[in-house]
Amino acid sequence: MGGIQTAVSRARAFEAVVWGMPAVNYRLMYDAGTAAGMSGENQILWWPGLMDWRNQSLTPNPDVIYLMPFFTTENGPVVLEIPPADDTHRINGSVMNYWQAAIEDVGPAGLDAGAGAKYLILPPGHTDPVPDGYTPLQNDTLQGYALLRSIPADQSDAAVADAVAYAEKIALYPYTPDGATGETVRVDVLGKPYDATIRYDASFFATLNTLVQAEPWLDRDRALIDQLATLGIVQGQPYAPDQATVDLLTAGVGDARAWLEAGYRSLFDTPYWDGTHWAMPAMPDLVASTNAGFTVPDAYPVDDRGLAYTFAFFSSRHLGKGQSYLMAIADSDGQDLDGGQNYKLTVTADVPVSQYWSLVVYSSDTHTFLPNSTRLSRSSLNPDLVTNEDGTVDLYFGPEAPTGHGSNWLPTLPGTGFEVMFRLYGPEEPYTDKTWALPDLQRL
Q1: Within 13 A of 240's CA, how many CA atoms are on the CB side?
Q2: Which of 244, 345, 404, 427 is paired with 93 by a 20 to 30 Å CA distance?
Q3: How far apart are CA 143 and CA 141, in angstroms?
């Protein structure tokens, strides 16, 4: 292969990684589910309890009950039933296509506004009338999934069991003309290995090929057909790259990783609150395009989308209504958070949420839980969380629990950088108008 051809192929591998990241991210989660016992689509992968570090997906939430219904409309519409909410039971989440673009949010902050619904997920191009009693969700891909969270009132055993029982009311099954309720298959992965970390090696392209073989081309992506063909990815043909191509793919994915990691760090150049190191990991163009179903005529933020799915999964059609997220990778001095050091964060009193807040620690290298960590988060749902007399909460981070503060401590791992995410469920006006703010982590 000549020098020009080599450079072009490497560049096209780079572009394929950035473009294909959300779909590969999705497929890795699906494959992790099959490794844990899921036998195909139209099944619900779930954690009937609070997850532990063995869930190695990107920045998951360990304070709620997780459900991931994976579906396909290849053989017709699929029904997703969301139960009605009340004062102590609620579902928060959204339904997404293969590219993890939200079709619609569900639950109290979603389309049903807490009334519950029988959502009818429709295949691309579906034109038949929607029967009475169903809420249509028009998908533009055959496959997709939902990320649903059943939120416990607190983290006592009784409250968690109650949230699990409520989650069991969620159903997923193929639609039939007689409207019969089909059988829901749930696959329990609590405590099992679930590894959906992004693989920055040549296997990335094998996973990408799975997408190309499984889904019709979306019109907006047809420009990629020839480019992927030069990498050996062609719809309807086997994928069998020779060693020279594998070497180019490996170089290209390495280039992409370096570029994406630099882009991730740049997200923190614009803090949420002036003078802090907290940032909202959401890019305005991507949020706008996602909210519009990627139909904005003059926008297709592929770069932002690729970056977002290197450190997260899931999208919301109405980000900020049901939940909001802030992240920090540096302390008050602007130094990277170091798992071998000790830190303190004083959470400002009266966190403006209608539901709860939490803070979770992740590896800054993989954006997953720290391996073998015995505690993943501290949250307003924790019954043993110690609150100061003025309503503030002191959180501690480090390899060992500080004397007298074990209830409010989060473990870190020496030799591993870490990052933190602060979640607000049911964010309220003092957060959105920034009259309430978080300070930075202080190195001790």
Answers
A1: 3
A2: 345
A3: 6
